[in-house]
Each structure stands twice: as C-alpha cells, then as structure tokens.
Amino acid sequence: MRKYTHVPSLAAVVVLASCGGTGTGEPAVPTAAIRRTLDEPARAWVEETLDSLTLRERVGQLVIEWIPGGYVSPSAPEFEPLERWVVEDGIGGVSPSIGLPHSYVAKLNALQELAPVPLLVGADFENGGPGMRINGAYALPSMLPQGGGTAFPPTMAFGAIGDERFAYEYGRITAVEARAVGVHFLFAPVLDVNSNPDNPVIATRSFGADPELVARLGAAFIRGARDGGALTTGKHFPGHGDTSVDSHVGLPVVEADRERLERVELLPFRRAIAEGVDAIMTAHVQMPGLLGAGSPPATLAPEVLTGLLREDMGFDGLLFTDAMTMGAITEAFGIGEACVRALEAGADVLLSPKEVPTAVDAVVAAVESGRLTRERVDASVRRILTLKARLGLQRSRTTSLQRVAEVVGSGPHLAFADSAAVRSVTLVRDEERQLPMRSEAVGRLLHIRYARSNALWAGRAFGAALSERVLALRTLTLDERSDSSAYAEAAAALDQADRVIVSAYIRPSAGSGPELASERLRTLVDSAVATKPAVLISFGNPYLLSAFPAVGSYLVAWGDREVSQRAALRALFGEEAISGRLPIPLPPYYDVGHGLDRPKVADFAPRVAVEDPLVAAGIADRASRRSDAGRIQPLAPAETVGMSATALARVDDLIRAALADSAASGAAVSVGRHGRLVKLEGYGELAWGSGRPVTPTSIFDLASVSKVVGTTTAAMILVQEGRLDLDAPVVTYLPWWSRGDARKEQVTVRQLLLHRSGLPPFRRWFFDLEGVQAYKDAAADEPLEYEPGARTAYSDIGVMTLAWIMEEVTQLTLDQFLEERVFGPLGMMETGYRPSAALKARIAATEMDTVWRHEMVWGRVHDENADAMGGVAGHAGLFSTATDLSVFARMMLNDGVAPACVPGDVPGEPCPVARPDDVDLLDPAVLAMFTRRYDETSSRALGWDTPSERSSGGDWVTSSAFGHTGYTGTSIWMDPELDLWVILLTNRVHPTRDNQKHVPLRRAVADAAVQAIADRPVRRREDAR
Amino acid sequence: MGAAFGRGVQDHGAIATGKHFPGHGDTGVDSHLELPVIEASRQRMDSVELRPFQAAIDAGMGAMMTAHITVPAVNGGNGDAATLSPAVLTGLLRGEMAFKGLVFTDAMDMRAVAGRLGAGEASVRAVEAGADVILMPPSVPGALKAILDAVCEGRIPEERIDDAVLRLLEAKESLGLHEERTVDLTEIPRRVGTPAHTQVADEIAEKSLVLLRNGNNLLPLLGTSTARVLSVNYRRTSDVLAGRYFNRRLRQTYPRLATVDVDPSSLSQLSDEVLARARRSALVVVSTYVTAVSYSGSVALPEEVSEFVQALGDLGIPHMVISFGNPYLITEFPEVQAYLLAWSGAEASQRAAARAILGELEIQGRTPTRIPGFAEIGDGIRLPRKEALTGG
User: Fold this and answer.
1) Among A862, A966, B50, B222, which is least packed, fewest CB within 10 Å?
2) What number is the ipTM of this complex?
3) Cα–chain center distance at A130
4) The A832-833 sheet, strands edge to edge
C-alpha cells in the first residue's frame, strides 16, 4: 500500500520572501466621512434620482436583501440571483452574511458596478463587531484559521467593563473595518435590556440588564461608530430583552405596559435618538401590554412605529423592519402582506423579504389600490437616497481591495479587542480563593471541556495556553454525543487530579436554568466540586451557575472566540487583573454590579513551550491520539524464542502501575531474545497532560546511556582498528590535558573507561562555562581527587575526556563519527544528538529546570553540562527510541553484527529501516573485552557496567550481563548467556528529579523479563540473594 | 499524463514542477519521518520511475522537486538521499536526462534529510548536489549561514551558487516578475472559480469514477423514493464537509435517507447501534474519507470500519463502499458487494459519486493503479447511464 502523498507547501514563498522584504510603516487609516447635511449638488442628486425612478423601482429601493458573503466569481451561477435582484428588481441595498474581508469587497464592488442606483450596504457587525461576520472561517479539515476582521468579545462583555470609552472604541473600530469592506450601515448597537435571563435570542448580544447601563454604553457605541464613518442602527425597537421565545422561530411576547416600557425598554432608545442614531430596527414581538391582546407584532403596528417612535420619541431617521423572513412574521401574514403592513405601520426599509419580486409586487399593488399613498413610499425612498448621498455614494460607490489589509484586523485593532476581553472577565465566585492560580502550585490538573461537537474552535486558544502553563495537565473533551464511557473516563480522571477546571461552551441563548447542562454533565461536575477544588468557566452563557450551584469558583468569559479564551486564561493565572462586573443579575445569588477583584500578580512565563507542529498544522489529531508515526515493527511471538507471553505481560502491568504512581509521564520498553523482539511498547504520555502518547518510536533523552551506546561504541571501533590504545596516557592524545600535573599525566584511556582516573564525578561548570573549549580548559585545570587506578569513582569528566581523545584521533566530532560509523550503518535513524525542533512533538519532556535554564527541558539535553557544551558530549546528549535501541542490542548480542533485513520481513527482527547487507560493526573479541567485568574491585567493565547487588538490571540477569542507566530514567541491559535484552526508557525526571520511583520499576521489569524465559531454568543471581 | 499536465500549466503562465525525482512511488515509508530506500535496479528505474520524468523534461517541464529517498542503483548505495546526491541531481538529472530547469529540494525539515545530518549541513549538501532552491529549511538564517560558510570555506564553488541564482532569476524573468511582481486583486473574481473552471472539475470528477466491483448488479440504484437507505461516512473528526454534498444529493432521491457520521472517536457505535440500523435498511452506502496524510505514517482504515463492511456482507444487507480517497481500501474488506473509487472528498467528487450510483452518469473510469489481488491497471466496470440501460 502506498503511504505517501506530498502536501504542497508554501515553502518557496517562505524562503524566497525572507530574502527580500521591504518594511512598511503603519499606514494612516482614513475614516470615511459621513456628511451630517447635504450640499446643493447632493440634494439635487436625491431629487433627480427619485424623479427618474418608476413606482416599481422606487419600491425596489426600499428593499435590502440578504446575500452570502463568501467568494464567488461574478460569472458563476451562484452570482445570478444577486445580479437579478440588483439589476431587475433594483433593490436599494444588500446585507452580506458571513465571509472574508476580500470576498466582501470583491462581491460588493461587483454588485455596486451593476446597480442602477448605488447600493446601501448594511451588515450585522453587531455581537463581537466585525468578528461576527468577517472572521471565523477555518480551512477544513485541518482547521487552519483564515483570519479576517477584528473579533471582539460579545457585547455583554462591554457591559461587564462598564466603561464608555471601551464601548466607544468598540463602535469606532467596528465602523472603520465595516467601511473598509464596503459596509456602510451597522445593524448595531443592540439596545435591548436583557432583563429576562431565559431570553433565547438576545442574551449576550445586549449590554446588560440595567437600562441606564445599556443606554450609556449604547450611546457611546453610536458616537464611536459615527466617528469611525459608519451609520448605526439601534435595535430591536421597542425592546426585545424581556422575551423567552426566539423570534427567528415563533412570535415572542413582551408583556410590559407603557409605564414599564418607559422605565426599562425605551430608555436606551431615547438616549440613542438624542445621540443621533441613524436608524432603528423594529422587533418582531407581540406587545399585549401596550397594544392589547391579539395585536399584530410591533414591526407591523402603526401605534409603535409611527405613534410611539416617530411622534412621541421624535425619531426622524430610517426605520428598518427586522428580517422579514423571520418565522414570526411570515407565518402570520405571508411575505407580501407583511411588507405592505410594515410600510403602513411606518417602516422605511423592508429587510430581507427573500422573495423580492413578490414583496415588490405586493407593495406596488397596495399603492395602486390606494391602500398606501405614493407620498408614503416616496418619503421612505427619499430617506434612503439621502443616506446614500450623505455617504457620497453618488460619487464613489466601490471600495479599494488594496486597502483592505491596511485596516481590517490591524495590529492596533486586535490589541484593543484583547484588552477589552481581558477587562471583561468577571469573577463571580471564588470561595476558596483559588484565583489567581500559580502554575507551579496547580498540581495535577484535570481540564474538562464541554462544547458542542461542531464548535471546532471551542478551546483551541484556551487549551493551548493552558498546556503552556500547567505541566501535569489532562484535558478531556465532552460533547452532546459523549456516551457513558466518556463520562466514566472523566470520573476516573477526576480521581487522579488535584484540581479541576470545567470550561463550558454553552450557548448564551440556551436559557438560564439547570437544564443548561445535561444530567450527566451536572453529575460529573457535582462530584468534581464535592471532592476537588474546581473552577467553572463560562465561555458563553453567563447564567451557567444555576446549573452548577455548588461550584466553588465561577469565572465568566462571556464569549467562545479565541479572544475570550485567551483572556480567561490570563485572568486565571493572574497575568492580568480581574475587574469585570456583572451587567446582569444571577438570581438568587448575585446582583448587577457584583464582581470580585483580583490583582495582576505575574507576567506570563511559559512553563512549557508546547509547539506541536503536527497538531498546529492540523496534520495530527491530538484528540484521537494519532500524533505518532513510524512503521509498525512486527514482533515475534514470545513462545518462538522460549518465553512465556503471559509471564511477559507482567511487564505491562508493572509499567502501568508505576506510571499511575507518577514514576514518569511515559515509558517505552523493548524486550528481545535470540535476536527477536517480543515486546516493544509505549505507555503513558510524552509530558504530563500533553495527550501525546508514548510509542516505541517516541524519542527519549538517554542521559548516561549515551556513555555506552555512543561513546563506548566509538571506543570499541577505534580499539579494534588500532587507532586507540587503551593503555596510552591521555596526554599522548591530548597534551594540554594535564597542565603539567604529573599525576594526570599517568591517567590512561583504560582508566577513563573504568572510571578509575581520579577525576571527580562532575562539576557544576554549566553555571559559568559555555562551549566545548571552555570545558576542555576546565577539565585541564581540574585536579585529580585520588591516585589514578586506586579506586573506582564514576566520572562524567572522564568520559567527556574520552570523547575528546576520539575526536582528536578521528578528526571528526563525536556525533559525526557515530552517525557515520554506527547509527547510519545500523539504520538507527532516530538516534543522535541535538534533535531538531521539528521533532519535539515526538520527544519525551524531561525536567522543569528551575535553577539554570528556567524552562521545561523538552527536546534539548537534560544534562546541564552537556547542554552548556552545545549538546554533544561524551557523557550525555544522545537521544533515541526503544525501536532504535533494539537494533543496537540486537547487534551487541550477535557478536557485533546486525544482520541484513527488510522492515517487516522477519517478525521480531529489529529493523526500522532496511539494512541491505549485514552490518559487521564490532569485533567479537573487542566486544567481549569491553563488556566483561574488568576485575573484582568493582562492577565496572570498559565503559559498561555489570550486575551487582541492587543492580539496575535486577536480580535475575546472569553475571554475564552488561548494561547501563541514564539519569533521566533510561536503562539498557543485555545478557549474553540468556541471549536477552531489556531496554526501559522513561522520563522519570519529569517534571522534577526528586523522584526515585523508577528505580524499583527498572529492576522489576528486568526481573519479569528474565522470569518470562520458559525454555531453561533461570534463577536469582548469587550476589543478589 | 504528467507531460500533458506540465504543458497545460506552462502554456498558461505558471511553472510546473515535476516531483518527486527520481520517483517516490515504490516506497512504504513516509519520508516526512524517515528515509525510504528504492531498491530498484537502474534498468527498472529507466523503464518505470524515470520515464515520466524524462517525458516531462522532453516536454519542457520548468522545475523538478527532489525526493528524500535513497536510490542505491544511482548513488552506488552510499545512502545519500536523492536530494543530497550529486550522482542523482547532477549526474543523472542534469547530465544524462539533460534537465535545464530549476531543481527544488523537497521540504528540508522532513525527517529523512533533516534528521540525519542536521539542517544546515543538509542544505549545504543539497546545494553541492545540484539543487537550486532549498525548500522550507527548519531555520532560514541557519541554512543561509551554513551555505555561506560552505562557500567561504571553498566547499561549494561560487559558480555553483551563481548557477542556481541565475536559473532562479531567469525563471522570475520568464514570469515577468521584473516588470510586475504583484497581482491585481480585482482580477481574482474574473479568473478564480469561474463556471468554465468548475465545469472542468466536475467533468474530471465524473469521468474519473472507477467501479471495481458491482455484485448482483447493485448499481445503478433503483432510486425507489420509499427505500430506507443508510449512508455511513467515516471521516476525520474535523472533516465536517465529508459526506455533506453526497448525502444532500442522495436525500433528493431518498427522502428517508438516514445518515451516520463516524470519526476515530466514535467507532464503537458501528458494531451495535449502526449495525442495528443497517439491519433495518434496504441499502447501506459506506463512504470512506481516508486520505494519505503526511507525517501520520498511515493511510489505514480502522478495523471497526472494515469489520462493519464485512458484517454487512455476512448479514446479506445490500451495500457498497465508496472510497473518497485511498483506493486500496478494498483489501480491508475483500468481500464487499460493490466498490467505487471517487478519489477525493472534494465537493465535485461527492456530487459525481452520488449521481453516478443513481445512474445519472455513465461510470467509465479505469484504475490507473494496481490493487494487488483485486485490480490490474486498466480495470473498471463500465456502467451506462440508467436511461441508456432501460432504453428510456
């Protein structure tokens, strides 16, 4: 089966573009001016245009029709209906839906060029500003965001900030971006007072539940939008806040009488009219309190539009109906009759009647029958033409495509949206003062994310930022399709956690009661709350607390977009102050204005730089845990090499139990016998909470296992080639090394390998030194601690020195030599020093270094001295996988020969890549010499170690065995007599070295492997008894 | 075919890139992860792998992209990736095959080259070997510095650099970039996604459909509007458009169409819930949206899906599988009743497949690839349109 398809890349652009590149400064952004009054030529244009239109064309001007906002070529069939509306029906304007900035401009320009009279363009840049319409496109299936206009948090977030300056800027930026994409009219601000928590249609689109707050911020928004160059629309008159029916579906009822309307609903509209709002949009609501029972919806009521709005409140601007296709209207009357009634009632514009010719015909018929007067129609047409003239559309009706990118989604706009989101975050409850959290004190964090399965962006930014700050993080995603097993998994994860964050992406319009969350979710959260410190974050519905009344901490982020996700995260960790105030009550607990303050306590310092290029590019799917790769290495059945599969299974149990006990976040094991792999397995995850599973090809920092697999192997090769003399003094190769110290001049190569040189174990040079030369100088200056050969003391500096000797002999760096002579020929392609950053997604994390590097060490060598030397050192620095090390062990137990192989050909033959011929690496005599215990004064062989009491190889390998361990939690053991190898790679230093649980695990795994041998007696070693 | 594609591209103002030289077809390893070995002899390479490249060169292909594979037959088994091999790039491509155009490396962050040598050294070797453009080095400054150092040390002759730069400048000149380097935004709607273009895409999607099996002449479907039809889509979690256009068309014919979306996190439902619904259905259409994905190292179908298909057969439920991607999936459910290849999950392919199984289109494609044990190159059941069948 073919497994490879190249994904075309933008690479050429990347490289070529980076060579040139001209900087452009921040361009001046002109704001399109709107005239307050018309000059003589403009007035003349209005009258001349009106005169030139037939009745049918005049009625056409009253229609603003909804159009898709996406890209389409004007020659494509999808463009035809739009063209018909504009050219044949002569509609007055269009209202584009969701699209991208450039697609808006291209389409609107094309339509403007076709239109007999310039089009008035209005759009719902309302809840979240431009983000509601021209940002939010993702390329599927990889979910790469396509960018767009500035996405603000929802309008209610500005209510939580409560500051008019923010509302003003929200309006201004929205207007500037709207004009830049060809939109003249904002169908904003929403002036509804959201006094009914069960309101399914307004909710967080409103500034809040306090009439004065809504009035104040609404007026500020209008000022800002006017200064930004766009027309504004207050909606939904006379107030849509106190309903519990969605008018998109049915006809909602607002019970309020006139007195209550004056006190609550009308206040923001009066203020907006005083502020000079350009238009008001009516609501499809029934108003029995005002109009009596059984009256028509407000949109169609002359008492409301003409009597109340025009006459009582003195509004002289443009009057929109809400969309005429909304169920509340069409069901009752049919589209034509509804349009006639709306005009009769006093509306100027028929918004989105959809069946445009039907609507126009009905209105024309009503004029011809005398039901509507021509004057009535002309008055409305004149209002529309006047607005077009105020915008200067008679002179210039298109928008520059070139200028879009200078304005839309600009750096300053995004920065403001970020700061608004931060300021809006509201801490409603925090009984145990969990906030701000400190990432080092969070412990094991369980993050439960609940979102609908189609809300693909939910949690993207929050989850990524959380994993940068919390090491021991586990994230579980639940949605409406999650079954009982998913909840059972969450409940089990709960037991393992020290703390829980529940982020809920539940629609703001879904209501306000316990029914906001499913029974299952409530049960899960209730049990979390009862047993662990828990924080509930609402990314959407602010009333969520009523579904989880017992939760100890409740944070409201208002919106579900990335901007709110980032803000919530920063608030959570004290990287920003929390200062939001509830603009709505949360009965029975909290009133309007409630909100806890928290200071800013920290600057963001990433704990872990989680760059997962695969996940980021959408190539790997973190959720489905398919991030790792590599061909499957087939195993040999244990029985074919004289082992018991059941007994061997104990290795799994041991490792799983140890990981459950936090011995490491992950482990990989390889067991082989008679040259055949019988176990090759990964367990756990690469870093706590990373969600990235360990596999047999996961890459581990080998630490001191480098000394044997790397440095010692190089030494064996040079000895067998006669290029390295074990008994030659070090100074014959490195004359500078003794600095004239007579004792150091005696130290031999053999003593370095046996750790009998007299050198100390290691020095904390990394605090002061950097680079190989500095280390060589320091080693030369370092005095011996004891007479060479007198005793055995494990020394990093000795092996470091050995590597320098070999570099001198070969004139190659250690990594070059090993790659050329060992890892390359053996096909150990995943083995080497200094792994590339691109591999990070496959590397196990090591320690949170709080002392020197101040970062989570992940993908760079854990050993500080090796790191300070640049990553390549004799004593540490090698990275490898369980799969690759299996090849190495196979070679070592086969007299230094790795036989020719084809991947997958022979089950159990370690063969990640083909070896075309036998690789004859080591002379059996040299191999035996290096791996045999040197003498009885210590357990050491040349470079290698052999079993002793409490050996890391366990109690059951024979005395012929040899092996080594690494500080990071790695080990490799080979037993020639049993013809068995056991490799265990863990990241036990993750996130801290203060953990010794890997020590018994190592021994137990080795013992279990030996005990699984079934074709010969095995027994505990003498020295172990 | 490749040469024709290249002519089509280059006759209309863009440069075509033949890839992945000297041939990446015969490998089971994803070179994003490791270095595959092409064991073919030189003779076999001449007759198979190199033939399309030579034809493309003869047709004037403007650029070639190298493969991160090693070809012992050309480089003498020294293990060099073709991208880094003078024998392959200079000796074979430039010399024997007389290629004069631009040589791109494949992405240099791919494991097969980056992992072995380190990114800087790999870039130097690629230039030494004869590449003109280093594509996507993990670090741009790193690659530039390494190459510059190699020139300063005399490892790479300056002429080699000049040679590459000259070729690049010539390519830019041939595109007219020296006169106009930006594009006119206002031209986009006139040129991109025009009906003439989408029509060609539709036609290709329709003509490329390959029917490899049609047990009991299941296709074309009768289209009885009362039939209970179950459409099961297997797709990646985020691939939410998979099945959308296909099901939409099918529902026009079968108003009672039931649909199930299965992704890697919801496979368990196949063996009970979905199978139970399948038992109540007159027909089950299984659509698999499995495409080869770089870095994943796998194009596999979860066994739950293949077991589901096998179960449909065992239960005698009329069924078919449409592969919107990997054509080899049939090997996972060898007894499937009907098997149609639609090649991709694109909207055009989804629509074409739906119309084809309903008999609105003639199915006429022939598989261009061998599926061992199931199909030879050129296989494909020709199925006339239903009207033609009934004479109506």
Assistant:
1) B222
2) 0.78
3) 22
4) A700-701, A878-880, A832-833
